[in-house]
Every structure is written in structure tokens, then in C-alpha cells.
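Figure-free illustration: sequence to structure, shown twice.
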Amino acid sequence: MFGTPATDAALEARVAQLEAALASLTGTVTGNAGDAAGAIEAVAQQREAGDDAAHQGIAEAVDGSVRRTEDVASMLGGEIVQRAQETAALGQKVSAVKGEAVQASVIAASDAIASDVATVRDARGEVLTARDQAQAAAQTALFGTIHPDYATGLAATAIGAEWVSYGPASSYATRWLKTSATTAQFQDAYPNKAAFDRVNDALNPDPEGAMAVDPDGLGIGGTLGDGTLVGKQLALSGVELIPTDDPHLTVLDPDGLVAWTADPAVARTFSTAEGKEIDALCEVVQPSTDANAGVDRDGLATWYADGQGFIISGGKLVVGDLVITPGSPDQLLLVDPDGLVIYDSADIVTGGDGSGTGSDAVYAARDAANVAYAMAGRNDLMPIVQQIERGKVNIILTYGQSLRRSSRGYPPLTTVQPAYSDTHVYSFGQACRPADDDDTVYQPVTSAALYPLLAVCHYNNGTLIDNAGLAAIGPDTAVPGESFSISAAYWLRQQCLAKWGVEEDADTPFVVLDCAVGGKSVAHLSKGATPNLYNRIPSGLTQIRDLPAFAGKEFRLVLVDWGQGENDYYEGLSGANPDAQKYQAAVQKLMDDIYADTLAIFNNGQKRPAVFIAQAGGAFTTDATNLHVGQAQLNLVTQVDGYFPTGPNYPVVNVPSAHPDNNGYRWLGQYCGRAWASVLVHGRRPNIVYPRRATWDAETNEIIIDFMSTGGAISEGHPFDGFTPQVVANLGISAKYGSAVLTLSDVRLVGAMTVAAKLVTTPAGPPLVQIGTKALDNGYIGLRCASRMTSPETYTFIPNAGQDPAANVPTLVGKPYNLDDWCWAASLQSEQI
């Protein structure tokens, strides 16, 4: 490569050594470059697998390769210097030798050595360049292609590929995914030194307290030496308290908008008076030193209670009967033990005009008390009543007036047993009622045998009527048909089967016995009246006991459903029970007689059957007795153990006589089935909505009514007048003083369970507040609690079968019956405040 002067054997030998050294250097450089390339490839593969150890490996391989290359280059440089020195000495020696050939040879050797030095310098430059390229390749393997800025990276990257560019200022570098020619999606960023500096500055542990740390050793909360709780935010599952400059507690929705504030100067959806109780939360976030805490196995607190009993943190909050558990991040949900929602803050109606007046605070305080009242006692044990017993005959008895005989409830809807139940639900006779409307004994339709519980229509002599005969009769006659008890019994049965975990139970039959008589008062239906219509009950029970099909079986009367009161309204002040106290006492005496006769007939020692009551009202209401029937029925289901509500009768579809039609009865049956199952299967009280208290402010002439709603917030509703939903005047609320009816204005909801109104004229004293009067809007009430429950039965229209043509309502046909909880009628003497 360098040429060899033939005149000097030593020089020739030395040149050969230099050529060999250079060849070795070249091989070393080539090998090192290969090592670097191999290491880069290995890192690229390991990067895909996410192996951080490979990253360190490539860095070490590259650094080692570069160091070895630099060492060889330094060694070769020393060889070149030594060779130059030897060449200089050789030149001096040769200068003593005469002759142009030798001189020319030496000059040629010197030129060759100079060229060799330049070549070596070039080789070292290539090695350094290879080092830089190796380092860049390693960085690329770790971070992806790096570009000086976002625009350059976007232009140089294919759609669907990633790149890394330096910046922005808050990051050392950022990784992007190109999604289109002009856009990219942020993937992640590599923090710069300033970010780590800020983290370091934030680390300020208190050596006298305790600190909880995350897996990286960074503090996330703890306590100071004096017991002060320290943290960025305080969280109770989905509830977070975040410090701001506002001295009042504020709840933000996910969009950052104020959903609720304790500031009394700002209108809010619910609160306590002046927000003081809620604002007090700000004062108790720092627990006292005499507190207690529960810790996990790592010694970290899982809950904290201060000396006053305030709970800080924890999975759920339990205070007496109130249990608050994590749920929706947008609202507060209170659920019963079965997981059903009993209160939903999303249903709260904002009260007032937003001006933040004193009235707003009063409304908020009253509403908070109403909500708390509605929640109280939900975990109380149920009264002791007879339960459904497996392996025994369980009898369902209904009694009352025409609405319990299904008068005008045709054509039949339940003509086959529903698929959601089993088949062991029966009637005594082909119908679930006696043939005759007012016979004193139970005369079964067709024969004294068990039949599958189905709806049939018949005359009083027991003759069945088919759909063609019903079409000839036309709608709204006293012919009975679809009994409410049919859909109620099948839904109760389905709930039992589900509770028992079986699809059928032939050993536990249900028998439905409807003994109602139309147009009779509670006095007419009581034991010992003339005629003794009550005798239909023991007559029917005795015949069921003696059926051959039930030989050897035990019997239980599991419930009595009472649906009556329309005739007592009709009799008014001239009736045998013209006030609420007398009517209530008469009903209780009747139920005592039924229980006593049941024990005598079956000799079974059973417990008292649960009594379910439907409130009479709507168009059957009269006002002369101040709603005495409805108020007595409300008193029974809210004050007497063993009595339970099924709901008022007025909301469902009805014919001109104000009776429900066939859908109306099946609709009411769904309410009854739900209530029966709530008590007898699930052991909880049925939902109810009613006014519990009213006040009158003589200074402002304002009436405020407190409502009880166990199912949640109340809102305006539109019950059916015929087959059309109607808007009820003043929500069905009226007032009177003495005999004078007082005009109300501005009747409105001001909270979840609170209504306010103004009297146009000022009475001499606290007025009587009434809900559901005949005079105001035909006994209808425009308040209800929305229900999430779905009925298993659906609204049905059957043409050419005697059904009212107006019943063909497209918005109802084929849809489940709505099961909103409607407000009960009541008469309340207001309190002056």
C-alpha cells in the first residue's frame, strides 16, 4: 500500500509491519461498527418488548465500541509517530550514502508515510462519526425518530407512524402519532429537568408526622405532628373536597359547573337552613387529636373518625339507618338493601327564582327535613304478619265494592296463564268471584272446582259472556271481567318463585277469592249486617277447605286486599261512618272478624294476614266530610301495623262511570302485585306519597306543604281522565277556612318533597289544607314519584268486544303499564308559624 524501498531490508520489513497494523485497524473499525449495528438492532427488538434492560445494554455496547475504537486509533497514532522518528533517523543514515537511487527511495518512503498518516486521520474521523451515529441510533431506538420540532416531524412522518420531536417547553421531548396529513395525536412526553425540579420542591415531609407514599416514594398525604390531615384533596369514594378561595362548600359537576353550593346567598337545590350545617364541614376537615383510625396491613389509614364522630375517608358512610355508598359520579343515590333506588338527587327540582331570598333558605331547610323523614326507618323490622308458606294452600282474599269485583272490566285480557309464572294459581269456580253480585253465600261460577286463574265475563246467574256478546252489550256496564287480582296474583307468584329459586311449585298452590259487592258501605259489608254480605267470605273459605283436591293440605290466609269507600263518600254525613275516626275503626273491626273466622275455619293458628288498602278517590270523592274516607285509609297504612298501601285508584284509565276498564283493572293489579310482593316476599314496605304536614305564615300568607315520598323526589304528573292524561289544577291542592273555600295562587314545587302556595285572601286563622277534593278537579291529584319499575303486563286493546273505542290509545297500546307512585288524598289542618 505504501510502497517498499528495495535498497533497505529493514525499511521494507517495517513497512510491512505498518501495513499489517493498518489492516488490523481497519478490521477493528469494521468489527466495532458491526458490533454497534448489532447492538442497535438488538435494542430495537427489545424496545418493542418493552425491555428497559436492553436500553442499558445498547448504551454500554455503543460506549464500549467507541472506547475500543478510540484506543486502537490512539495506539495506531503512536505507531505512526514512532515510524516517523525511525524514518527520520533512517534519512540521516541514508544521507551519508551517496547515490540518487537511495535518496529517491527515502523520499518516496517519506511521501508514503505522510499519506499513511492522512489515511489514519481519516479513519479516526470515520470512527468518531460512527460513534455519533451509534449514539443517535441508540436514542432513536429508545424514543423513535427525533426531529427538531413538531412541524418537521409531522412533515417527515407517514400517516399511522410515530415520531418524537423536542419540546414543547414543559417537556424534553414528545412522542406523536400522525393521524392525517395535517394532524397528530399526543402519545406521551418525556419530562425535562424543570419538571423534576418542581417535584423535588414539592417534597416537604414533616418528620414529626406520618406520610403515605405512592410506589415511587412520592408523598400523597399524611398527618403533621399535631394531627392535622394533609393532602391535595379529601375523597370519600366519588365525593371530593378540593380547596378553593370560596369559604363555602361547593359541589361541581364533571364539567366544572356549580351543581350545588352551601352559600346562602346563592340558590341551591337542597341544603339545610342558611347552609350552616354544610358549611360546618369546612371546620371539621382537620380532625382532633383524640381521634381514631383504621389501618390496613401496611399501616395506612383506611378510615378516620375524629372526636366528634365525623368520618373522613372510607368505602361507604353509615349513620344509623342511612348508608351512603359509591355509585354514580354525577349524583347522590340512596339505595335500599335490595339495591333499589329510594332517593336520587338527579330528581331534585330547583326551587325559587334564584334570587337567594330568605324563602329559599326556608324551602331548603324544610325539604332537607322531608328527605330525611322519608329515609328514616327504612331498615326497621316489618310488623309480624302471616307469610306465604311452601307446601301449604295460600289463599288471597279481596273484599270491598265494585272496583274489587271488576265491574265494567271487559273484554277479558288474561285468557291464558302468563308465561312468567307457573300454572299453580287458581280460582274457586271458573271466575275468581261469586256468580251473583250480592248473594250472601259464595256461589262459584260454572262449578265448585278449581280452575286456572283466568278472566271471564258472566251474568249474575253465572252464564258466561263471549266477546260477541260483550260487543252487543257495549262498554261501561256492570258486567264483571278482568279482575285486578289476576295480574296481582301472577306477579306475586313470579316473585315467590324467583325468591325460592324454582320455576314451579305444585305443592304450594295459590287460590284467589274475590268476595266484593258493588255499591255497599263498610257498614253494609261488615259482619252481622242485614243482609249478611260478609258471609260470602267464610262461605268461600269453607268450600275451599273442603275441596277433594286439597285433602290433607294445610291452609293459610296470607293477605286481605281491601278496596272500598266510594259508597261511604256517597252517603256523606248521613252515613254510618261519616268521619275518619269512625270509618277507620269500622275497617279495623272488619279485619278482626275476618282473622277470627279464618282461625276458626282452618284451625291453623296462623298469624294475622297482611291487610292491603287501595285509596278510594277520584270522581267518587265528595267534599262534605273533608275527605274522611281517604284520610282514614291513609291513617291506616301509615299509623297501624299490619296495614299496607297499594296506591290510590284515580290515576289509571277509566270509563265514563269513573270505573276502570279492563286495562285499568289490570293496571291497578300491577300496583297491588308490587305491594303484595314487597311485603310478603321481600319484607319491605311498599312505596307511598302523601302530605304529612302543612304550615301557614300569617305574615306572608304562604302555605308550605311537607310531603312524604319513600320512592324519591315528587314531580308534577298527569293522571287519566277517561283515556286522556290531564293537567290538574293547582296540583290538586286547595284550602278552606270553616266552610269558605280559599283561593290559592302560585302553587309550585320548591324542593324534592315540598310544595308552596299563596293564599289570595287572608283567613282569620290557619286554614285546612286539602289534596284531592271533588270541587277543585274531580278528585284528581297532579303529584307523583316517578318509578323505574317495569310492569310485566302490557296495555291491550281488543276491537269488537265491547271495549270503549276511546281505549285504543296508540301511546299506550303494547307498552308496559306505568307504575309511578301517585299522591294519596288527605286533609290537613295547617299550623301557624
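We now fold a second protein in the same way, so the two outputs can be compared directly.
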Amino acid sequence: MAPSLLLLLLLLLLISSSSLPAPRRTFLLNSADRPLLHFSPPDVHNTSTLLLSEDTSTLYVGAGDALLSLDVSQTDVIRLKKKVEWRPSDSQINECKYKVRNPTVDCPNLVSVLQPINSTHLYACGSHAFSPHDAFIHTESFSLVEHGDGKARLRCPHSPFRRSTAITHDGELFTATTTDFKGAKPQISRHFSKDGRPDVCQESSASLLQDPEFISSSLDLSERKLYFFFSEVGKEFRFIDELQIARVAQVCKDDVGGLRTLQKKWTSFAKASLICQSPKQLPFNVLQDVFTLPPPEGKNASETLFYGVFTSQWSSGPESAVCAFKLQDIRDVFSGSYLTLNTQTMTWAPRQERRILGQCGLETASDQDLGDVRKSFLTGEGVKPVKNTPLVVSPDQRYSRVVAERVKVVNGKEYTVLFLLTESGFLHKVVLFDGGEQLVEEIQIFTEPQLVKSMVLSSAKGVLYVGTSEGVTAVPVARCSIYSTCSQCILARDPQCGWSRSSRVCKSPTDPHQDIAQDVDHANVSDECQGQTRTITVKEVFVELNEAVRLSCQKPSNLASLTWTSFKDLPQNLFIQPADGSLRFLASPHTFGAYRCEAVDGGYREVVASYDVRQMVSPRSLNVIKSDCQDQDPLTEDPTKTMTRPSGDPETPTMMVHHDFKTDSDHEDKSTVQTSFTDHGSGFTDHGPSSRNRGSSANTTPGRDPQSDALIVKSYHSELVVVSLLMTVFFCALVLGGLHMWRQSKSRKMNPLVSPDDGSKTNQSMESVPSLSSPEDTSPELKVVQ
């Protein structure tokens, strides 16, 4: 069957595997709930290489055209201690411009190797305008002295963005990089060899490595071997398209080469494939990163684990996986069978006998044996992952970096926590269990794609340092205070957090003598949170009639579903529940009453918010209520009322009254709930009302205070009395006014004010007439004139 057809059939048979669950909590960049510490001065860029000192108080950074020494002794600040400029000269930059396509990006000096060479000095190697340079740095004075032996091109790549790996031990430097301008000549080498041994490298054979991308390296001290992890083109498979293969290669630390054959060349070099594949699935064949996790304290070195991030060359989306490999399994593969390369046909065939292949100490081996070493360096079997399957599979995230640590919980059990950096800029915290994994949280570290990325973990400080093109970011590995209740703390299943029963807060269980509730395996809230009830604040919301009401409710986690319950039997079309979890409706006599938002998470139900919506009374009625309530007993006085704006209308004041009560959602009686509105979405999808529970109807609304209704009725009665009194006064004034005018007209006919005989005289019989004007009227009264 043709290889291309075989690949097509494999694609057609692809079955989706179990994938990583959604994150419980999501924190965007610069979130107040999950603060990060950033170090990004304007003159610092491409902080590509990070190295933490042994006492974890200093972070050494290899950046663009500079080396930095950062003080990280305090977890709340990153301070620049020293900075050394290390940039190419103008002539070197001008020469570089003719070699590359983008001189601005390719011609600076990007430090790719930064390792401790001894107790007082660091070794650094950088691209240096496509002409690698290396130097030694004194850690105390942080002064730089360039090495100048002309071999820096063998220790770090020419391109600033070509990946390589390096590791030091006992003053010796082991590197895996490309040694030419085009990056076409890969090389694994030992430099600064001790005890009179010569430096060694690989034989210049095109078949040893096929366009590799070096990823990581690790030291096996017990067997004095080094392991290099990389991806390359697999020539043992005869496909039309080049097939990428994830590899691990070994060399012996003390290898000095052969006497005549393979002089100053590795005689112990061998390589094996790394298998990261789910059953009945295409393999994840491209290696992105590897982290070495030492064995637990007191365990054998063979228990060392290598956590690798893999992607697939056939995946059309951002799919990735994490596989773990045990050191003992790698040892077994290199001690097993090998394949032999036919140099005429360039095909591989199984070798019948193994003899010396993959062994150390071949400096005195015969030429025939070393000839076999030249042709038989590929193992017949691949290294299978722990549990024979990926530990984590993410169908929608492309992971690029991984860091792991072991965490011991209060019951003494240990869990592995993975920190995975995505290409999109989020850091995923994943906890591994015997039966699966949980994505505890995702934290946004950057927003724009980064050309360079690196991560270093300080377990002692509980801080993860992430280096990107923009700078260095310090991320606390846990922030337990974001879980405000016992149930949220337990359901998080974070081994670095536990619920303190005495202080009633979620905190890091650093003290083994503390009374900490923690259940990472099963998240049994009922058992761990007994007696840890929380106080719920009931918000009484006063709104105008026909006002748009919005009652907010926030999910305690992305996996929770929200349910709104009402203590009335109401049609669901009166309510809208948008994607943000709130409840919206128009205020009417039918919708006034009590509402409660409940979250269901991991099978546990708890009240998140509680409201009592009431109709707002007029200010005049409030004054009457206040005066009537002044004579009440202070012990039974209503809670203080505060005016706020409603969510639906910012122009109308809303009155809210707060009550506190305790609730235990697991044992609460639901018999009074009449109507419910549920959002079953996990995430940010929009769902409307979906459920409704009916029960016996009642004339009064549960949760309403009958006394407050009586007060509202009394206030309208007072207004009616006032209006009636005003109308009575007005009517009396009209009657008196009409009577007065009638008397005046009658008196003019009988006793005219002006005598017909003398117009200047006034009738003496006229007495004083009182004024009908208000007391404020100052016009004079009419008097008899003599």
C-alpha cells in the first residue's frame, strides 16, 4: 500500500480522544484577582534565557544585547541589580545586514546559552550578529570577559531564533546546536574537557542527525550519561512527505573517542524515538519542550520523569499533548535491540546481536566494533510513555513550554502539578490524578505572539518566572484567596490550597499542624466543609413600577451552572437570563418578590446571591414612615436603607436593604420554590430560561415583610387626608369670598360711600371692614372718615 494512501487511511480512522477539561477559573492579563509581577524596562527586550541561582535570590537573564542580574529575593518586587551591555560592533552589524533578510531582528546579539561553569562564573554564548561569541561572567561583580577562542560557533547557533540546548557539569560544557550559517550542520559536543581529555563531537555523517530541532538536555549522573531531546526527519520511514519524529539521544559523559576509528568522536552516541500517541490515533510526533522532574526524596534516580510537550504535523488546529517518560524506560530501550543502516540503499534493518552498542568505555574497542557503532546507532524500539498514553490532550491549545513540580498535601500524598504555556499567551495550571487531570486555572501572561519564551520555577518561593520578548513576568504558583468559600476551595482540587477551619479562609497549607480541609482526589465538599456555612447577604432592591431590573450573579467557576429561583409561580417569558448569568425583567406587581441565584458545581449546590425586589415608595411617604417608626423599639428597628442606582435605569434611584442569614444549600428545603430559571452553560454562552417548578400558590409573597406593606398603605392614607383638607379649605374660601362680595353690593345700594351733597364726604355710618387677605397682606383697612 502506498505510504500516502496509508496516511490518508490513518486520518480517516482518527477518533477524538478524551481531552483536557475546561479551566475552572480564567484570569485575564492584569486581573486584580490574580496579580502578576512584570519586569519590562523599555531598553530590555528578548529575555530569552533564564537561570536561577542556587539560593533562588538572583535571576540571571540573557537578553538582546545585554545580560541582566535581577534581585528576586522578595516575591513582590523584581529589582535590577546589574546590567552588562553585550552588543555587536557597528562593523559586525553592517556585515550582518548583507547576510539576513531582517537585520533589525536577526543582527542583535541574542543570548541562547547561559549556564554556571563553576561556583564563581557563568558561561554565556550569543548569536552576535550571526557570528556567535561567548564569554564568562563573574557572578559577584557581574563583569563580562569574552572567551575569544574562536569556537563559539560550535556552542550556540548563528540565528538568534534557532533553538539549541546546553548543560554543564564539573566545569565541562555539553551542547547540541547547529554550527554553520545556514543551520544545516547539527552537532552534539563536549567543551572545556577536564583531566586531560580531548573535546569530542559527532562524526560528520549526514545519517546521524536529519535536520534536528534541539529542545532540551538532561544529566544521568548515576550512569554518567547525558540525554538530548529533539525532533528530526525520520529516514527509517519511507514516506513521500517527510515524517517528523521526536527523539532522545544519549552520549557518555566521559567518552573520549576511539584510538584509530572515531578519534575525538562519540563512540557512545545512540538515538531512540519518543512515542506520544493515544490508542487508535495518529501520534503527536513533534517535540516542543521537555522538563526533567527529579525523583521524590529517597527514591532511586531511575524514577526521574521527563515531561514533554508534543504537537502533530498532521493537525490542522492548535492541538497538543503532554507525555511523561521514565528514565528507567529510556535506559531499557538503549540497552535493547538496534537497527543497522545499509549505506548503499539507505535502509534500516534489525541487527541480530547488540554486543557493545549503546555502552560506555569503548575507547579501546576494535576498529570492527567501532565500525558497527557507526552503522548501528538507532534503537529497534521506541520509548513508550507512562501509562502508554498521553497524560494531557488539548484539542484547542498549542502548548509550547512545560514546567512540573511535586506537591505534598496534608495527608502526605504527592501530586504532580504542570504549568503549561500556550502559544496564545495563557499559562495553564494542571493537576494530575490517578484517574485523570484537572485544569485548575488559566492565567493570561501576554497578548501578542512571542518569538522567544522560557520558564523557570522556584519551588522554594512558589513563583514561576516566564521570559518572553517583552520582559520577565513572575507568576505566583497559587493564589488561594480567590476561593471565598469552603466549597470553592475544595472543588478547586488544588494541592497548593486548603481550607482553614479555624480562620475560615482558603490558604496554602504550609503548617502541617493547622486544621486544613483538603480533598484533592474526590473533592468531597459535604465531608470537608461540615460546619463551615457562610453568611449570605440578602439585598432588598427598591425599584419604580415598569422599571428594567437587572439582578447580577457571578459564577464561582467556569464549570458551574447557575439557577435562578423565584418564590412565585410566574411565566418564564417575563424573564431574560443573558450569558453573564444575570436575571432581567420589568418591575411589576407580579415580579416583586424574592429571587435567589444558586450555583451547581461538581454536584454541590450553594447560594451565590439573594435579592428581594420591592416597589419604591415616594419620598413624602418615606418621611411619614420614618416618623411613625421613630417610636418603635430600637431592637426591632428595620435595617438602614441606602439609595443606589438600579442596574436597568441609571437615572432612577433604587433603594437596597441588606439582610444577613446563613444557609446550607445541601439541606435546604426547596418546597417553597415556585419558578426557576437555569443556565446550564459552562463558559460564556448565552442561555435563556430553561426550567420551571410549580407548587401551591399563595396570596402573599414569601420573603416579603407584611409590616412594610402596612406602612405603605398608611402613607397613601395620609396623602388622601391632606388632599381632602386642602380641598375643604379651598371650598370654604370660595363660599366666604362669594358672601363678602354679596354684602358689598347690597351695602352700596342702601348706604352709598359718597354723599350726593358733598362728594368729598363719606357716610358716617360705615364701620371698619375686615380684610380677607392672608396675614402676610399689608394693605390698610377701611375706616370711617370724619
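Summary for the second example: Residues 1-17, 623-674, 679-715, 748-786 have pLDDT under 50 and may be disordered.
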